[in-house]
Amino acid sequence: MTDFDDRLNAGWWALRIGLGAGPIITGIDKYFNKLTDWGMYLSPVVTKVVPVNATTFMHAVGVIEIIAGVMVLSRWTRLGSYIVMLWLLGIAVNLLATGMFYDLAMRDVEIAIGAFALSQLTAVREAQATARP
Question: What residues does each domain of the chain span?
């Protein structure tokens, strides 16, 4: 079996770094609100359903994002990218439920597609690595 194509390898690294670092950065920022006030993106439906206040909920969200980002950057890239993909789709649904932020919801769906692409590229890389003599 041949080595992973250099062009695909560059794309894999770009997706891996971006989809790993992005959730870590935004997850950490859930505690500081320097990038934005994250609570404003929380759907009123969610605030009624979850048994904690919005700030506590966003802190929990931050922890999950950090873990997902670390997984993407670790040897669990494929699993982490699936988690990031599902997480982003969940965020898109939340944004749609606010009745606003449709542009951000669309952006998150597009990034989720990138996370899916990373999972598929990782599967090919892993298959080639195990097929080598």
Answer: 6-127
